[in-house]
């Protein structure tokens, strides 16, 4: 069973800073998350598992593309 996660707010996402040289992941519920790269780029992604148990990841858009 999945954990209940509070949805990300605009304030939380825009004020989040990347870790020192590492990727930061902010969960938005189920398998959707926001990935913040070391350069500060914010990317919406979703991870899923195929029937053959292979783990995959979809990339949707950058966060700035949604607000502009």
TrEMBL record:
Keywords: DNA-binding. One of its GO terms (molecular function) is DNA binding. It comes from the Bacteria. Residues 8-64 form the Integrase DNA-binding domain. InterPro entries: Integrase_DNA-bd_sf, Integrase_DNA_bind_dom. This is Integrase arm-type DNA-binding domain-containing protein.
């Amino acid at each position: 069973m999945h954990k209940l996660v509070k949805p990300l707010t605009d304030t939380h996402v825009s004020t989040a800073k990347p870790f020192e040289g590492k990727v930061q992941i902010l969960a938005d519920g189920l398998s959707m998350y926001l990935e913040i790269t070391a350069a500060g780029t914010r990317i919406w992604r979703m991870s899923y598992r195929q029937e053959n148990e292979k783990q995959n990841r979809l990339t949707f858009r950058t966060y700035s593309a949604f607000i502009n």
